[in-house]
Amino acid sequence: MKKHSYGKLIGMSWGWAKEILFRPFILKKWIMLAVIIFLAGQMGGGINLNFNLNRADFEGFIGQINEKAPGVVMPQAPDLSIDPQILTQAIIVGAFIVIFIGIFILLWLWVNSNFSFVFIDSIVRNDASLRVPFHRNKAQGNSYFRWNIVFGLMSLLVFGGIILLPAMQLIRSGAFTAAPIDIRQILLVISRYVPVLLGAGMIFFLIAFFTRNFVLPVMYKKKIGILSAWKVFLGILRKNAGEMLKYILVRIALFILVIIIAIIVAIIGIIALLLVGALVGLIGWLIYAVTPAPAKGVVGTVLGIAAVPIFAFLGFLFIILFIPIPVFFRTFSIHVLGSIDESLDIFAPKTAEEIATEASDAKYKKSMRLVWFTVLSPILFVLVALLLAIAIPNFIVNRGDLLQMRQPGLEKIMPFREMPAPSLLPIRKGTGETVTVYLTNGNSFEAEIARETEHNIAFRVEGGTFVLLRSEILRIEK
After folding, report:
1. CA-to-CA separations, 239 to 244, 250, 374, in angstroms, rounded
2. Which residues of 2-31 are buried (b: 16+ CB within 10 A; e: fewer)?
3. Phi and psi at residue 74, in whole multiples of 5°?
4. Burial class (CB in 10 A: 0-12, 13-18, 19+), 215
5. Intra-chain end-to-end CA distance of the chain, in Å
6. What whole-number distance in Å separates Cα of residue 286 and Cα of residue 125?
């Protein structure tokens, strides 16, 4: 039976949160707590890319030429995607990207798992330290990390299987290939699996919810692994199922209240941030205005560089306004657990055995290089992504040029010269000029010359490049 009412537990939790955050208020402590909460993945609160490759326009253009000149067969540029060497290289690059992202995710999951206990430690001890709590609770953090890997893989398999079943059924039924697409049939098939999907989602949600709220504090208190902690919690759950249901309802009510408060705080914070930003911008403008003309370029560059960390810090200050929310909720779940089972009260005075095991923190003052590498890994990830984004297209284009040289009739790419046929006007390659191409069947079109050989000429139009035999061209005019 629960020792305290939820009203008293809420008051106790908010009182301890105020003790941590405001008695006294120390900005450094808030910043350290923000780092801990962020790395624990408990900080309370898409990119739409539209690429138009004009492929349809290009295909329509080719279709018009073929329609006007049905006797002319337009040779297409070689399909580079099916080249075995390029395919192998693409697989290698893709595997590298997948492995890199996988390592990145695992590192962050490891950091999140371990800092979940650093966060509990900082709440219980009212101390926003990093290194000692990290190593002191590393055994529990690593146990939670292994749990997260298994739990995540199980979630993917279950939800992937549930989604795959209707997808396979719809594919076999031909619902996606029918003309028009039978939306009613698709919705009918999907609706049969919605209850299963929602049921599985609720089960996984409750497992994750109870793990974070109660199992982690049990691990922290008893210094045990997650499976042993789950056995302890399941015993509590069997005896206090009604209390756990009531806790979930109270959490939902508190969550709604916190959203309202967060919106108000966000509005006030944004207004303050805009005012401070405007003041900083005004100071920068005044400095730039009084700067002599010869030095304006240098001063403008310095001010621009200095503005980046200033506004980043202002943004960070805006984020830490919400720190009381995760601090309160973490404290609240610990108090509820201790109220249900006093032997699991983390705030209770420590026993002589617990004091003896924590007599010295010297052995926990170890390096955290892997943690900081993980924190900085997004920068490394962005740099690698930028390098790949630049290198891969250039590689494909260069590879395409090499492959085209191996095609029949393209054995030797020659610089632009006067064409053998006297009716063809000499044109220089690479000028970017648009030319008019007259075909032997009486039709014509406008394009740019991409390259030429003794037998073929490649033309570039919006959306792509195609090749014609010289025998099919009557003349080319600028």
Report:
1. 10, 19, 41
2. eeeebeebbebbeebbeebbeeeeeeebbb
3. -90, 105
4. buried
5. 92
6. 47
Q: Which domains does the chain have, with CATH numbers?
A: 6-45+92-355 (no CATH), 66-87+387-477 (2.30.30.100)
- Listed in sequence order, the residues at least 6 apart from 465 whose beta carbon sits closer than 8 Å to its beta carbon are 77, 450, 458, 459
Whole-angstrom distance, CA of residue 475 vs CA of residue 122: 81
Side chain identity at residue 221, one-letter code: K
**Per residue in 56-108, pLDDT tens?**
454 455 454 544 444 444 444 444 445 566 667 778 877 888 888 888 889 88
Distance CA(63)–CA(436), nearest Å, equals 18
Coil, strand, or helix at residue 474?
strand
Predicted confidence (pLDDT) per residue in 420-446, tens digit: 443 344 434 445 678 888 888 778 888
CB neighbour list of residue 21: distance below 8 Å, 6 or more residues apart? 29, 30, 33, 323, 324, 327
Contact 476, 436 (CB under 8 A): yes
pLDDT at 392 (0 to 100): 61
User: What's the pTM?
Assistant: 0.65
**pLDDT band at residue 375 under the 50/70/90 scheme:** confident
Q: Are 136 and 121 in contact (CB under 8 A)?
A: yes
CA 369, CA 375: separation in Å to the nearest integer? 10
Instruction: Give the CA distances from residue 193 to residues 159, 185, 188, 206, 377, in Å, rounded to whole numbers and listed in that order.
Output: 11, 13, 9, 20, 39
Q: Tell me what percent of the residues of the chain surpass a pLDDT of 90.
A: 25
Q: What is the DSSP string of 340-402?
A: H-GGG-TTSPPPHHHHHHTS--GGG----HHHHHHHHHHHHHHHHHHHHHHHHHHHHHHHHHH
Q: What is the pLDDT of residue 444?
A: 83
Give the Cα separation of 14 and 21 in Å (integer).
10
Say if residue 180 is preceded by a cis peptide, omega within 30 of 0.
yes
Tell me how far CA of residue 45 lies from CA of 247, 325, 397, in angstroms: 21, 9, 44
